[in-house]
Amino acid sequence: MKTGHVLILLTVVVIIGIVYMVQIRSGLFSTLPSLEIQPEEAKFKRFGLIIDVRSPKEREELGFYPNSIPIAIQDLLKEIPELIGSGLSSKTTSILVYDNGDRRAHIAAEMLYDMGYQKVRYLSTSYDRMLPGRS
């Protein structure tokens, strides 16, 4: 192959790499797997840790899923390492995150995934759809 062709090929590869990195950083192209789980599937899955990312007021007024741990989304980065230290959680723990059906659980699940928790899932609907007798 001639030197000119090699340089053109190398330039094209570099441009493709740059475009790919820009897309990832801008959120146009996500490399994250889908972390969402439907209530029907979550009902039958066993989670080592269930995190409620709603406010204390929401938890008090609307109730909560049994055995869930309240951690406001803004406190997640601080509280999760403390849970690991206490033995309640590890990087291999299967984690479910929920809210009232807004995007907080989704954001929290992505944060946890980025922290190395590969078995994290979130409900995109309200937690009460997981309760027995609900659909």
TrEMBL record:
Residue span, Rhodanese domain: 49-132
Keyword Transport: no
Record keywords, A-Z: Membrane, Transmembrane, Transmembrane helix
Aminoacyl-tRNA synthetase keyword on record: no
Pfam families for this protein: Rhodanese
Transmembrane portions of the chain: 6-22
InterPro entries, alphabetized: Rhodanese-like_dom, Rhodanese-like_dom_sf
Name recorded for this polypeptide: Rhodanese domain-containing protein
Provenance organism: viral metagenome
